[in-house]
Amino acid sequence: MTRAASIMLIDDSLEDAELIKTILEMGPTEVDRFLHYETGDAASDYLKGLTASPQSGEDLPPNLILLDLNMPGTDGRDILRWIKSTDPIRRIPVVITSTSSNPRDISYCYDVGANGYFIKPIQFDEYTKAMNTLMEYWFRVLKLP
Amino acid sequence: MRHIRSTLRGVAGAVLAFATFAGASAQSQDAARAPLVVPWTDIEPYAYQDRDGVAGLFADLARELGRRLDRDVSFRHFETALAQAAAQTSGETDMLPGVATLPFLRENNVFSDPLARTQVRILVPTENVDAIDPETVSGLRIGYVPPIAGSATTDFLARNEGVPYEQMALALVHLLQGRLDGLLVPEGPMLALTRTLQLDHRVQAIGKPLLVYDRVVALSKRHADLLPAINDAIADMEADGTLDRIRSAYQMGVPPPPPATLTVGATHFPPYQVIEADGRITGFAVEVLRDLAIRADLDLRFVPIDAASFGAGPGPDRYDMLPQTAITPERQARMDFTLPIETDTWSLFAARDRPDAPASLDELSGKTVAVTANNNGRRLAESVEGSRLLIVGSVDEIIDALLDGRADVGAYATATLQRALERRNLAGRIVVRGEPLQSTMRAPALRIGLGVVRERVNGVIPGYLVSEEYRAHQDAWFGEPNFWTSERTRWGLVGLGSVVILLACLSAFQAWRQRLHDRYTAEVEAANARLDRQNTELANLNADLARSNRELDEFAFIASHDLKEPLRGISINANLLSRSGGLDDKAHARVERMIALCVRADELVSALLLFARLGKPDDKAVRSRTREVLDDTVRLIQETIEAANGEVVVETALPDVAVAPDKLAIVFRNLILNGLKYNRSGRRTVAIGFVANVEVEGCSVRNAFYARDNGVGIDPTLRDKLFRVFSRLHPVTEFGPGTGIGLSMVKRVVEDHRGTITFSSAPGGGTTFYFTMPLAGAMCGAHEQEIAA
After folding, report:
1. Which of B339, B434, B620, B750 sits most deeply, having the most CB atoms within 10 A of its CB?
2. How sure is the predictor about B383, in pLDDT bands with cuts at 50, 70 and 90?
């Protein structure tokens, strides 16, 4: 069963955002909505608005959040901790997309409640393959809330 | 124990004296000069068997009378006292001396004048003496051993509560426990019992005797003609003290109570007793007894006595005490002793020019031994058969006899004779022969009946013996006379001077040592303070270093991230550009080249991060199974190996190492990949092994692992460049791209584990890398042996 994907990307890198959007468009998974926020603050503001009045279709929460860790200002770790401690959005799966292979970062994210940790490959083919696998996993294999 | 038992039998005998039984008819016998037959039965102290035959009161009296009557005496034994009495009653025996005037004996016997007297009195605990008046007292619990004769005793028991006992000893115990108020007993035998038990100071007889009876000689009527002679003999014995001696020996007499002032008899017997020319009595034993009397609150009066009186010992009609005398069994039977004051020895003495003189009792036979009449030395010499005694009057006469040759040897109290020799400056001419003959305790002696006095003295003796006064007396009476001669004084001064100088040197030395010690201590303390400071600094530095390492680790990650981000941006843009489709072939090739460079830069950054993090120490003591790590490594890069048409050969056993498996894998992977990469052989080979000892470029390496390839070899001039980070010896075009970090990482891992890495190579001839790693403990030896085999 294929389900409609509503994806939120929080990443300060415009290249990454464009690349992911391109990959998603080319990929087999149908993506209803792709929301990109360059800062954590903007993303959390949007998410707060959702929790207040979840009526219209536009206001429905995303069903997967891709989160970069290293961002200027409110960084990914703070956003992750806030999401995972706030009802009801804490049920939204969060997959970390980062270039950091630091084991301490990985441990921290899983401790706080991340649902996955994805190290961005540098090569396009690998990136495409990895992103497609991710989508396949989250929107075809798993049952999301 | 034996004493107690025999005394009890004595008590039983005394009681038996009151028993009545039927007499037997008398028989007349002609016994003109035949031995007088004396019956006896075994009851101490009246009669008993000892080493020399029949002994005891009856026996002594019988022998003494026989001697004085010039008649032989023979003893006839009877199993019981009843049988004995029956034999005398019937006339079967002739004479029974010391017996009570028993009514049934009268029938066929005549009685002599009294020899001794026995009285029955009330005995109470000493502390109750003043509280009880036996004349009037009533309602007391009185222990006695029936039967008791006499109207006075019957009246007394009627007024009080009589408690019969079979044994006098048990009654005595109950009296001392407070279960009885008094005892009704024959006083002499009871005194013997309490004295044997050393309880004579705890009980005392009070009031008038309730019953008195005499002891007489019962003589068969057949021998009535002998009675006047016997009475004469008794009178003589009373006059010359023989009876007194016998009575006190067997405690037939009842001693008077302790007087207010005790009389102490003293003979001239230096250094123990000394009677000065002016009649003053002094001496070691005298002064000691005076000290003891003060401590025990006793009043003493010293009187001079002669040798015969000394020999008789203390007694009611003579004197109460002797200052000190040797404790012998014979004396213990007739007098009391306090706790011993000192040990006395007796020795043999001889002139020094008589080296053949006897040195032990065994050698006295046939020799003339000089002794004095009353000294224990005489008894010792007498005991040797065949010895000839030369009995002289004093210790000085013994010395004279030894000097003029009248005696071969003298036997005398060691200390006394030596003291006499010193006094006469003869110490060198008369010497002690052999070991002391006997060693005996000396103690003040008391007459029997002074148990209270004895215990009071005993109470102060232990404390007195460690006192200054006692030591002063010892020094005064036994110390060397005139010790400080002028020569000795001179030598003493020289010695004293030496000691003073020695002490001065010693104290100077001590002071010097103390100064050294102080200085050393100060230095040690200063060093300790420095060490403490340095330790603190070191701890701070370690903390700084740990923080710095953490920060560096973080820095490596952050730097790699920050370096990668722009690379990724370039790469992604280039990728998007390449896929836009608007580029001609040449431009497309350039964009692809940009992408490749980005990838390469990303790899370099990752490698750099890996290299930077290699230096992190292992968490704990680790250990790798080298062969397993190698096999795993080969499996992981199997595709690369096959692509290069290569193979990895393991040539020897590989000992385990104390290195983390992931780090050991870095070493193997890089060496294998290097060997395969820089290689033009048809079949590219890397051989792995271990050697216990190997020579590399003139240096000996022990316990080395090796990786030998059949590659292009390394130019020795490039040796220094080989291990440098990012340095590559060959252009990319020759062997393809690489980071140039592989061997740097190998070297870093090896050196981080205190190992070394080196290689031997020739251009075109392949390369062999040798590296050492810490081997994992005991495995090392086993593997070495395995490898050597």
Report:
1. B750
2. confident
In the three-class reduction of DSSP (H, G, I as helix; E, B as strand; rest coil), residue B122 is classed as strand
Given an 8 Å threshold on Cβ–Cβ distance, is A15 in contact with B557? no
Contact call for B564 and A19, based on CB within 8 A: no
- DSSP 8-state secondary structure symbol assigned to residue B47: B
A15 at interface of B, judged by CB pairs closer than 8 A? yes
* CB–CB contact A22 B576 (8 Å): yes
**B761 or B721: whose pLDDT is higher?**
B761
Phi and psi at residue B34, in whole multiples of 5°?
-65, 155
- Could you say which DSSP state residue A39 is in? S
Test A19 with B576 for CB contact under 8 angstroms: yes
pLDDT at A59: 67
∠ CA B430-B434-B439, nearest 5°, is 100
Rounded Cα gap, residues A134 and B670, in angstroms: 33
What's the average model confidence in pLDDT over B716-724? 75
Report the distance separating Cα B666 and Cα A10, nearest Å: 37
* B78-87 CB contacts, 8 Å cutoff, 24+ apart: B78/B39, B78/B40, B78/B41, B79/B41, B80/B41, B81/B13, B81/B16, B81/B19, B81/B41, B81/B43, B82/B16, B82/B19, B82/B21, B83/B41, B84/B39, B84/B40, B84/B41, B85/B21, B86/B21, B86/B23, B86/B24, B87/B39
**Residue B573 forms contact with A (CB below 8 Å):** yes
Instruction: Give the span between the Cα atoms of B237 and B695, in whole angstroms.
Output: 123
Per the prediction, chain A carries an average pLDDT of 83
Q: Does B568 touch chain A (CB under 8 A)?
A: yes
Residue A100 contacts B where some CB pair is shorter than 8 Å: yes
A122–B571 C-beta distance less than 8 A: yes
Spatial separation of the C-alpha atoms in residues B433 and B411, rounded to whole Å? 10
Decide if pLDDT at A103 tops 70: yes
Distance CA B6, CA B451 (A): 21
**Cross-chain Cβ contact B557/A13 below 8 Å:** no
Higher pLDDT, B67 or B146: B67
- At residue B388, what are phi and psi to the nearest 5 degrees? -105, 125
Dihedral of the alpha carbons of B312, B318, B324, B329, in degrees to the nearest 10:
40
Interface residue of A11, A23, A68, A122 to substitute, partner B, most B CBs within 10 Å: A122
Residue B10 has pLDDT above 60, yes or no: no
pLDDT in tens, B226-279: 899 999 999 999 888 888 878 777 766 677 778 889 999 998 887 788 888 888
The CA distance from B624 to the nearest CA of chain A, in Å, is 23
Tell me the chain A residues in contact with residue B568 when contact means C-beta distances shorter than 8 Å: 13, 15-16, 99, 120, 122
- Residue B682 phi, psi (nearest 5): -65, -45
Are residues B701 and B770 in contact, defined by beta-carbon separation less than 8 angstroms? yes
Residue A107 contacts B, CB cutoff 8 Å? no
Using an 8 Å CB-CB cutoff, list chain A residues near B561: 70, 98-100, 102
Minimum distance, in Å, between the CA of residue A131 and any CA atom of chain B: 14
The mean-pLDDT minimum among B496-500, B617-621, B633-637, B651-655 falls in B617-621
* pLDDT the model gives residue B686: 93
- The reply to whether residue B568 touches residue A13, judged by beta carbons under 8 angstroms, is yes
Closest listed residue to residue A118, CA positions, set A53, A51, A56, A69: A69
Q: How far apart are CA B574 and CA B592, in angstroms?
A: 7
The nearest CA of chain B is from the CA of A34 a distance in Å of: 19
Do residue B568 and residue A102 have CB atoms under 8 angstroms apart? no
Q: Tell me if residue B634 falls in helix, strand or coil.
A: helix
B148-169 pLDDT, tens digit per residue, is 667 778 888 888 888 888 767 7
The answer to whether A71 and A42 are in contact (CB under 8 A) is no
State whether B576 and A18 contact (CB < 8 Å): yes
H or E stretch covering A83: helix A76-83
- Global pTM? 0.41
